[in-house]
């Protein structure tokens, strides 16, 4: 069954803690993306990667970091520098150069304790 | 996610009626548009797309209309069903490079 998965579904962060959100895809897509979704706002791009070992900042990269060591995986770390991390985080993937056809994962909800 | 719909405009429609969801986009140069459906607690799903050289495109039970003069996009859902209840949002692209997502509308189907 091809698709894109995110884990965990819910994640709790303590003050000053770094947390990592997982995103895995078996669609053989080169491009992967991380978005943040807040109530009453459109999706905002955090980071994206067009190919393994390469990634670029999106519109709201501050307080986040990513890695792309494998084609299938694009984990997102929410660092302690992100002062307002509570949000719904969505990962997506696409064929490189076909950003218009993105497949989204089910999302991870991050909550601050 | 579940709380995404709390601050959105809501459209309530009787089951079986047609739904029309509207979207105003921002960039007159955008050349590609997409409608997504997002059910509670899930990721967005592609519904239908339209290129800027078209003004109408039909899918299964859905139709997208594009009015470039007023930068307006609409999604029509025929014979709305309870399973259509979700948040719907549009996205615009410029040169197939940068995607800008709209805020969305929550569709509630009344049985």
Short overview:
The complex is a heterodimer of chains A (113) and B (111). Chain A is mainly beta and 113 residues long. Chain A has strands at 4-7, 10-13, 19-25, 31-37, 44-51, 54-57, 64-66, 76-78, 87-94, 103-104, 108-112.
Description:
The complex is a heterodimer of chains A (113) and B (111). With 113 residues, chain A is an all-beta fold. Helix content of chain A is 0%, strand content 49%. Chain A contains no helices and eleven strands. In chain A, strands 2, 4, 5, 6, 9, 10 and 11 form a seven-stranded mixed beta sheet that branches. Chain B has 111 residues and is mainly beta. Chain B has no helices and ten strands. In chain B, strands 1, 3, 4, 8, 9 and 10 form a six-stranded mixed beta sheet that branches. A four-stranded antiparallel beta sheet of chain B has the order 2-7-6-5, with no helix packed on it. In chain B, strand 6 (62-67) and strand 7 form a beta hairpin. Chain B is globular.
> Percentage of helical residues of chain A?
under 10%
Q: Could you state the oligomeric state of the chains shown?
A: heterodimer
* Share in helix of chain B: under 10%
List low-pLDDT spans of chain A.
none
The value of Rg of chain A in angstroms is: 13 Å
Please, how many helices of chain B? 0
Measure the end-to-end span of chain B. 23 Å
User: Could you state the order of secondary-structure elements of chain A as H and E?
Assistant: EEEEEEEEEEE
> How much beta of chain B, percentage-wise?
over 45%
Termini distance of chain A? 35 Å
Average pLDDT of chain A: 93
The residue-averaged pLDDT of chain B reads 92
Which structural class do you get from the secondary structure elements of chain B? mainly beta
Shape of chain A: globular
SSE topology string of chain B? EEEEEEEEEE
Beta-strand residue fraction of chain A: over 45%
Q: The biggest beta sheet of chain A, please? A: 7 strands, mixed
Helix vs. strand class of chain A: mainly beta
Radius of gyration of chain B: 13 Å
